[in-house]
Design goal:
mainly alpha, 434 Repressor (Amino-terminal Domain), 2 domains, 9% strand, elongated
Length: 140
């Protein structure tokens, strides 16, 4: 693709942000060069659908945390776009153990060291994680 052919159709989501990505195209000298691109309609539409789906799933998980069905670990795992297997590896636990930690009654009994591990993975404080569902329930 030539530099002049790099799509520059504006995104219709994430308004106000100038998100561009780097693509490589053939320049006038015949060599590959980096060019920023705003993408094209089909790509932007697919990205919007994907992010809408992620936000919808995150909202559903937030509701589960609020009603006490799952622990904040489930929310933060999803918010950080992690799969169970990745979180388990980061935490140094088996997947079944992390799944258990997503149960509110098990989460409530986790020791400070394990909470520190999860908080570090999610780049939050232990207090933020412990109080997450409570704050969200009280503030709406």
């Amino acid at each position: 693709m030539d530099v002049s052919d790099v799509p520059q159709e504006p995104k219709d989501f994430k308004e106000g942000e100038k998100l561009k990505k780097l693509v490589y195209a053939v320049g006038k000298d015949g060599k590959y060069t980096g060019v920023t691109s705003a993408g094209w309609d089909a790509e932007n539409f697919a990205m919007k659908q994907a992010w809408d789906d992620i936000e919808e799933n995150l909202a559903a998980t937030l509701a589960k945390v609020k009603n006490g069905t799952v622990s904040p670990i489930a929310y933060y795992m999803q918010k950080n776009l992690m799969e169970l297997s990745l979180l388990a590896k980061y935490a140094g636990k088996w997947q079944w153990q992390v799944t258990r930690h997503m149960k509110p009654e098990v989460f409530a009994k986790l020791d400070r060291a394990m909470l520190d591990v999860y908080a570090g993975i999610f780049n939050i404080t232990v207090e933020e994680m412990i109080n997450f569902g409570k704050e969200r329930s009280n503030n709406g």
